[in-house]
Amino acid sequence: MTVTAPEIPRTAAARLRWALADGWTVTLRDLGHWVRKPGQVVAGLLFPVMIVLMFGYLFGGGMTVPGGGDYREFLMPGMYAMTMLFGIEATFTAVARDAAKGVTDRFRSLPIASSAVVLGRSVADMLNTVLGLLVMIACGLAVGWRWHEGPARAALAVGLLLLLRFAFLWVGIYLGLTLNGPEAVMAVQVLVWPVGFLSSAFAWTGTMPGWLAAVAEWNPLSATMAATRDLFGNPGAGGTTWIAEHAAVMALVWPLLLIAVFFPLSVRRYRRLDH
Amino acid sequence: MTHVVVAEGLRKRYGDTPALDGVDLAVGEGTVHGLLGPNGAGKTTAVRILTTLLRPDGGTARVAGFDVVRQAADVRRSIGLVGQHAALDEVLSGRQNLVMFGRLHHLRPAAARARADELLTRFGLAGAGTKPVGQYSGGMRRRLDLAVGMICSPPVLFLDEPTTGLDPRGRTEVWDAVRGLVAAGTTVLLTTQYLEEADQLASRVSVVDAGRVVAEGSPDELKSALGGDRLDVVVRHTADLPAAAAIAARVAGAPGDAPGDVSVDVDADSRRVSAPVRDRSAALPEVLRALDAAGIAVADIAVRRPTLDEVFLHLTGHPTGTRRGAAA
């Protein structure tokens, strides 16, 4: 049997249909991984739960929360944002592996829209993130965390977290297309930690030395953490510095800024993968 | 003959390093054309330009009648690319890979599944179709890779070092698969580091070095230009090397050659004398007799095909390993 490739769409509407269909095919490929390697997915989902248990119960007793609130109430919004940060690693690893194995080149040699591959990647990663966030919220409820300001503000907080993940998605795609080799994978996996810890995730910035507190507060993660703490009605929101007082705005500005930088960089990099 | 792949004066630089320095190619319809050269010669760069992955700095190329820069989408519809690595999803099964790439070729779901099953059978992978690719052998991966490249029966297939890293069995499997495709009418541009592979598969070969085509012809034409086979003699005692070299020079040359016309390589470390021979069946007994008459103890003697290193030495005047590596 001989199969002939269909004609290339010449109209904008037909091209869009192709791009969406191709994006969905790439998404399905990732969902296929979930089915074939459920262990990996479950491990990825449970990893942040383990950190919650470690910090919530192992170190939590020694932690000071402003206003004397419960440490686990303080910790959970921080961990939600950390989970978004861990997502960089998943995106980066998947993109870098495809680039190294020539799968990216094969995609680029196919008659498909260049947007389809990244579209598929982002849908798959965002689905994974939603699942991960649900697991983390269930974990939070189990360890005594609650939202106190009603479901609307809680939903807004979840929206901010997903926005942050979407921004990190483009950071991950760009890094995955740019860096290669096992050393780079290792470097990204290691660097995620100081970036995550230098925030208000685990400790209130008021307990840090001044310069460190400034670094932690200007960390884009901290803006989302502070804003979601406020929206959930958890302790630890607010502060006396300019950046801490404007957490809600910065929780929008930082992700949008990251997207504005890394989205065009990724698209450019994908189109011109001249190694 | 119609030429399906035509390149004229292709140029590409990476920084200060020229990867392609004016490459011309013409590949006839339904033939296998080999690009033979060492790592860094520019073979992969040429393939990346012809498959629209890379823009040339200069020159033009047409594949299946379409310009690779201005009509990239049409080119992509007409080609299959099998790169240096098996570009497959290792977690998914072979069948899932074929269905996914079939869907990306815009086959309907049922057609993509039917095509996947057909290709698995054709490439001898029907039994392994549901296994994850991560469990495949090197030869199986390569065959699946070829099958993915053939989903839409493209008229032109690019194979970039398809057997590098395979064991002899895997190599034979891939060669058989490629022969099957060519018998069905596919035009193949093949890059390889192995003279033997070009010899087995290609009807014409372009020898590439430092981004230029330094020789072109059928494998037989190239081999005779290189002086055909080589005779290796390993002597037991280093002191016998000059005498053995003299004998090799006398026997190796064609009738009428002046002694200086025959280049004999002498390697003292391995006590080896190596010389080109025109007539392999006559040369071996003749050399043995002469060595015996001179009382030279021989550790090993053999007539063999020239290696790519010797081909290169002959064509370019430098061995393959010494050139500063440009991007492969």
TrEMBL record, chain A:
Record key words, sorted: Antibiotic resistance, Cell membrane, Membrane, Transmembrane, Transmembrane helix, Transport
Subcellular location, record wording: Cell membrane; Membrane
InterPro entries: ABC2_TM (IPR013525), ABC2_TM_bact-type (IPR047817), ABC_2_transport (IPR000412), Nod_factor_ABC_transporter (IPR051784)
Domain ABC transmembrane type-2 positions: 39-273
PROSITE patterns the UniProt entry points to: ABC_TM2
Alphabetical list of Pfam families matching this protein: ABC2_membrane
Topology of this chain in the membrane: Multi-pass membrane protein
Spans through the membrane: 41-59, 79-100, 130-148, 154-177, 184-204, 247-267
PANTHER family tied to this protein: NODULATION PROTEIN J
Family: Belongs to the ABC-2 integral membrane protein family.
Protein name: Transport permease protein
Organism: Microbispora siamensis
UniProtKB/TrEMBL annotation, chain B:
A molecular function GO annotation: ATP binding
Native species: Microbispora siamensis
Protein's UniProt name: Daunorubicin resistance protein DrrA family ABC transporter ATP-binding protein
Compartment(s): Cell membrane
Topological relation to the membrane, as annotated: Peripheral membrane protein
SUPFAM superfamilies reported for this sequence: P-loop containing nucleoside triphosphate hydrolases
Keywords (A to Z) from UniProt: Antibiotic resistance, ATP-binding, Cell membrane, Membrane, Nucleotide-binding, Translocase, Transport
Signal sequence interval, chain numbering: none
InterPro entries in UniProt: AAA+_ATPase, ABC_transporter-like_ATP-bd, ABC_transporter-like_CS, ABC_transporter_ATP-binding, DrrA, DrrA1/2-like_C, P-loop_NTPase
Family membership: Belongs to the ABC transporter superfamily. Drug exporter-1 (DrugE1) (TC 3.A.1.105) family.
Keyword check for Transferase: no
Domain called ABC transporter: residue spans: 5-235
Major localisation: membrane
Domain of life: Bacteria
PROSITE patterns in UniProt: ABC_TRANSPORTER_1, ABC_TRANSPORTER_2
